[in-house]
Amino acid sequence: MKKNGISKSVVKRLPRYYRYLGELLNAGVERISSGELSKRMNVTASQIRQDLNNFGGFGQQGYGYNVRYLREEIGKILGLTETHNMIIIGAGRIGRALANYPFDKYGFHTIGIFDRDPELKDMEVKDLHVMMNEELPSFINSHHIDIAILAIPKESATEMAPFLCENGIKAFMNFSATDLNGILPKDVIVEHVHLSESLMKLSYNLNLKKTDDDDVS
Amino acid sequence: MKKNGISKSVVKRLPRYYRYLGELLNAGVERISSGELSKRMNVTASQIRQDLNNFGGFGQQGYGYNVRYLREEIGKILGLTETHNMIIIGAGRIGRALANYPFDKYGFHTIGIFDRDPELKDMEVKDLHVMMNEELPSFINSHHIDIAILAIPKESATEMAPFLCENGIKAFMNFSATDLNGILPKDVIVEHVHLSESLMKLSYNLNLKKTDDDDVS
Question: What's the first-to-final CA gap in chain B, in angstroms?
């Protein structure tokens, strides 16, 4: 299959293309050259042409890309033409913030939020009520769930993730500070959001810059 | 400088090494071979040796790595031996969740949270009280701030980020759905956390898997 031939780095850039093209559409732009898109996205024009050629190339020489068409095609590749149901595991601050995050506009709907703490039971979060972890198997069984968001500490995540897989979950967005290595079936997809590690990268670059500045002075 | 020679992909892996080594220390492990570390981290042993050789190589053939020493050295490279002060821009759900996130354990201290909404003024968030955006210049001027976390919508972010730079901020952790391209001075460091894009990557992989499964059946 052609799709399988897309490299990870291209896939990583597709959501950005999708976002930029959406902004262009909102601004009433219907056609754009790879050169203009390149300036906006801070990617070289040849990179853009190469990336988009992966999907058969949507542009015409000297005429540019049809913004709406290109966005729709990238949306199809990203699977955004279908809606996705999600559950959130953990009704702490991060879980509740994510329940209120506007993922809906890309078709990602949170239809359940769960916690183990009886004190949080039935607590209102957006248009949902917190359910208890014990209710997970029957909930997963009676709803089509695509993605589980793990908004729990790593100790709980290493217990909950395999449990959720046994109950049929195939994809995770993981906010806990563990990679879940070796404890999940091979076909399960995990996207990690390690917030502390993002700060460490910032810190590395700050440190690097400081050393450079010292060298100069 | 040697440090400048470290590739981006290695830097990206360093926080993971740091995290794993911390877990090993907590578990009482003082020495580990690249082979064992490789199994835990799901990275090849030769990759690990290569990565760590970037920093002079902390291991001894047939003897393994000294976990504490290696973690300390990586911590130094990541700039984690110093503490970092942060401010959070936006006291909505994401901003408040981040204020309560345990970044402190890596030396990242949130010392101020700001919003433009007068109704949020003085609201208690962890051990802080929400300040108004107007107070930012004097606050930044009287405190040493290393990092500003942008927990605001993109329209506000494109206004606030340049304003914060003018007032001396040099690094951002950016949760807003914009790359801030072309509007910040070149020496400013930005680490993006685009949550919707993480979901799109998941969606792409789910879609890909479904197509594969269909092919098989």
Answer: 56
